[in-house]
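User: Working on a comparison across species. This one is Antibiotic biosynthesis monooxygenase from Flavobacterium xinjiangense. Can you predict its structure so I can line it up against the others?
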Amino acid sequence: MENMKKVMVQFDFPGMTVKEYDQIWQDLRAAGYENPKGLIHHAGAPTNKGVKVVDVWENADKFNEFGQALMPILNKHGVKEPNPEILPLHYEYKIF
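Assistant: Here's the predicted structure for Antibiotic biosynthesis monooxygenase from Flavobacterium xinjiangense:
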């Protein structure tokens, strides 16, 4: 049975530039993932070490399905496989 609890997923991509991040999104869009199924929110920000990504997904299963499309694109760009932190979402505040 599919886990229906929303999750927050955090990634750190050490050494990644925003240009590389933008190119990965361009490749995801070209592969048909402009709006990945199950993704509710996505944010990416440069840090002093690379790029941090924080997502909210409908559930962990949807995130894992997307990972099957994401990993080949990350590999294409020489990005080391990330070690995401997947946390059950406790609270979500929507303004819109």
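For your comparison, note: Helices lie at 18-30, 60-76.

User: Helpful, thanks.
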